[in-house]
Design goal:
With 134 residues, this protein is an alpha+beta fold. The protein has helices at 23-38, 43-48, 120-123; strands at 2-7, 51-62, 71-81, 85-94, 97-110. Belongs to the 4-hydroxybenzoyl-CoA thioesterase family.
Length: 134
């Protein structure tokens, strides 16, 4: 599990003063990037090797709104790691309450946009204690 703090700024909100729905996707993207960085995965280095991780699928559930100046936590947890894909659960929380939850599927692709196996040295750093999306 990885935790990444984020604050809601005015630019993140809509006319009603709540976080605009698409910004949750930006928040979880930042959380995923920081999770990979914390695992020691250099995404620029991976790109130089001719591969990148891309989002293949997202199943999102908006539970409760966040508002301007809220301090949020993006929690990222590995569900499963296959040969060419990663499934993870990401939650945006405030004071322990889940506001947004997504199951995200990432795939590793090459420069031609074709799926490729996750390199063994990269796959080896993913935690082996996947707990699913609860």
């Amino acid at each position: 599990m990885h935790s990444f703090p984020i604050r809601v700024y005015y630019e993140d909100t809509d006319l009603a003063g709540i976080v605009y729905y698409a910004n949750y996707l930006r928040f979880i993207e930042r959380g995923r990037s920081e999770w990979l960085r914390a695992l020691g995965i250099d995404q620029v280095g991976l790109k130089q090797r001719g591969m990148v991780f891309v989002v293949r699928r997202i199943e999102a559930d908006y539970i409760s709104p966040a508002r301007f100046d809220d301090v949020l936590e993006v929690v990222s947890t590995l569900n499963d790691c296959g040969a060419a894909r990663i499934s993870m659960c990401q939650k945006v929380m405030r004071d322990g309450a889940v506001l947004f939850k997504a199951v995200v599927t990432l795939v590793c692709i090459n420069d031609a946009g074709r799926p490729v196996r996750i390199p063994a040295d990269i796959a080896a750093v993913f935690p082996g204690d996947a707990k699913g999306c609860i």
